[in-house]
Amino acid sequence: MELRERILTVITTEERPLSIDQLTKKLELADTEAFKELIRTLNAMEDEGLIARTRSNKYGTLAQIGQVTGKISVHQRGFGFVSPEDGSEGDIFLPAPELKNVYNGDRVLVKVFAESNGGDRREGKLLKILSRGPADFVGTFVSPKGRIESIAYIEPDDTKLTFLPVVANDADTLGAVDGHKVLARITKYPDGRYAGTAKVLKIIGHKNDPGVDILSIVHKHGINVDFSPEAIAEANAVPDQIDEKDLVGRVDLRNELTVTIDGADAKDLDDAVHVKKLANGNFELGVHIADVSHYVKEDSALDEEARERGTSVYLVDRVIPMIPHRLSNGICSLNPHVDRLTLSCIMEIDANGAVVNHEIFQSVIKTTERMTYTDVRKIVEREDEEVIAKYQDLVEYFDKMAELAAILRERRSRRGAINFDFPEAKVLVNEEGKTSEIILRERSVAEKLIEEFMLAANETVAEHIQRQKLPFMYRIHDEPKAERLDTFFKFIGNFGINVERKGESVAPKTLQSILNAVEGEPEEAVVSTVMLRSLQQAKYDIEPIGHFGLSTDYYTHFTSPIRRYPDLMVHRLLREYVIYNDKSQKTQDRYSEILPEIADHSSKRERRAVDAERETNALKKAEYMEQHIGETFEGVVSGVTNFGMFVELPNTIEGLVHIQAMTDDFYRYDEANYQLIGERTKQQFRIGDVVEIKVTNVNIDERTIDFSVVGMPERQPKKRFESKTIRSSGGRPGQKRDDKKKDDRRGKKRSGKSDQSKGKGFSLKNKKDKPPFHKAVSNKKRKRK
């Protein structure tokens, strides 16, 4: 490892690749054994894609030689895109001929060529497969019947896995039968002569059993359902009630009027709040978060499980928790009328929404009421007299909360925070796991109220630590890439919106001003959608580069340690820095070392959870729409591509109108303006347009829904040309051919023996098929040879 580091140091500091002799001198290697070790190390580093070698056997960085390593995503059509590991912008396109033995997720080394496709993308050539992608996959076990020698195989759920692994040995089936959903592992990839093989690791259940479809998605994304025995044992050892000794050093807030406000079906309540008006006219906002770090100790079995999972996963019919339910729904949940340990952030907020004073400390609370978003909305909006009467002692309290939330929201608006308000859907399933209904979630005043309080606490905690320059876990959102902004600003110019820019960057306030300008206008949906797609993804990092979307310099996640590991880490850091006042260099060095990896891992786990959630929603939405095939609905164009347009219905279900189903014209894709344009009619379809569609097809396995635009003529099946005899022009005018000769010629045509090369005509059944004439010519050439 020491030699590797020295080699990398030398190579990366040089402008050009180095020969073996040059490397030997710079590394000051004297004896033969050291030289042999250098050669072995260089070969190993080259195999791993850490360095590159030129044709003249010189070694340098990959960038110096125009090479890139990365994981490849293979499209169903055979081509692929490599995501560079060096952080360079833009994926690298590999055409299908380059990917004969490459599979989705493989780590590859590619040579990057000049920009292709008009400079819009980079294209590469495959040099080497460095390592295979994930070997584990989910699929359906297939055991063919009625054959003397049946060969079982597994049909992968992921269509990007482009071969059918054979299960050759009975011992590798684990007793799986035809139709079982299984978790399997590839044991051998196809090599051209032999098929790929796999073995069954786990039988998930039969594909027709309730809930197996969701479990298959869970396993597909590598999400662990079961906790280790060690983690369960630690969870079981935690008492159901807090002990008196746990109260030492804590501020007692059990007499404070505090409430939790969550969804009606929430069971892991990790935040409670209190609000009061101070004598000086300011507000006091208390945000009290479950002290999960008191029970989940660093490097314990529970902690290892939580770190690996990164987050709880909320799916249609289940929650896969980050920590066992005994803790997440029990001692860690801020259930009403019971003592609970918390970390509290108490803020004094002035009339302008600024936090003028704050404290962070350990506490113990006893929540007064467990409130739902629905009831709080009914109270604040004065919608339900019965609910108001039930909570009459708290009505003024919630009014005060609404007043403070409005002040905080106004402050965020003034500084330019971007507010997207897209509808969200909730999928309801019956006892058999089938979709029964899809309803829209409304973000009412109650949801927005809690959102403002959590944002204030997260910002306050982040700024508190950043001011002291201590290692910390931040939630960051980088500003958009300049080229994406250029494309977006060019697009909105079509609506008469012109943005004056100074330099390449832009303030979030500018983007919010654009949203304000189109609010209530027909183009609001299209502008909001394209703007959102222009922004980068938020993630976790140790560098406080700020949160672009929230327009704040410092932000973290402090408020959900039951379901997010970064929040749990933030609690540990607060305990070290604030409560124990341990800011020693040793402590800082330890966290500086471990936090980058935790931040990166947590970001990846967050994306994995989002992908699983989206896939389960897509599955259940497709399942729901299967019963509506043939029906018509009104929707909005939500996306436009070169192969068609996506249309979203009011319940957020999205389907594709394929370009081939747009039969009234030939449509051209206008990428710059996100629209399809008819060549003849000049008919335009762009994001945000309202269209009437018909549901034409649903594929549950692929989670796809096909639409067609109502009013367009239905595509007719292709008709085969009838066989016709074309008279040769070689005969004399008026000459008659007898019927027998005609029949003989027709017979020759049917048998493929007609002498087409002599100009006696041919039958063309399909425009895509080569005419028999071509075939006859090629046969003659072979005979001549």
What does it look like?
There is one protein chain. The chain has 785 residues and is an alpha+beta fold. The strands form ten sheets. A five-stranded mixed barrel has the order 3-4-5-7-6. The chain has a five-stranded antiparallel beta sheet with strand order 10-9-8-11-12, with helices on one face. The radius of gyration is 33 Å and the shape is globular. The model is unreliable at 719-785 (pLDDT under 50).
Key attributes of the depicted protein:
785 residues, alpha+beta, five-stranded mixed barrel, five-stranded antiparallel beta sheet, 19 helices, 33 strands, 31% helix, 24% strand, globular
Mean pLDDT across the residues is: 85
Q: Describe the biggest sheet?
A: 5 strands, mixed, barrel
Quickly count the helices: 19
Q: Report the β-strand fraction as a percent range.
A: 15-25%
Rounded radius of gyration (Å): 33 Å
Structure classification? alpha+beta
Distance between the termini: 62 Å
Biggest sheet strand order reads 3-4-5-7-6
Summarize the model shown:
Helix content is 31%, strand content 24%.
Topology (elements, then pairings):
Elements: H1 2-13, H2 20-27, H3 32-47, E1 52-53, E2 59-60, H4 62-65, E3 67-74, E4 80-84, E5 92-94, E6 107-116, E7 121-131, E8 136-142, E9 152-156, E10 166-167, E11 180-188, E12 197-206, H5 212-220, H6 229-237, E13 251-252, E14 259-262, E15 271-277, E16 283-290, H7 301-309, E17 313-314, E18 319-320, H8 325-331, E19 339-349, E20 355-366, E21 369-372, H9 373-380, H10 385-390, H11 395-415, E22 424-429, E23 435-441, H12 445-466, E24 474-476, H13 482-492, H14 508-518, H15 524-534, E25 539-541, H16 565-579, H17 585-625, E26 632-641, E27 644-648, E28 654-658, E29 667-670, E30 675-678, E31 684-686, E32 690-699, E33 704-709, H18 739-751, H19 772-784
Parallel strand pairs: 5-7, 13-20, 14-21, 28-33
Antiparallel strand pairs: 1-2, 3-4, 3-6, 4-5, 6-7, 8-9, 8-11, 9-10, 11-12, 15-16, 16-19, 17-18, 19-20, 22-23, 24-25, 26-27, 26-32, 27-28, 29-30, 30-31, 32-33
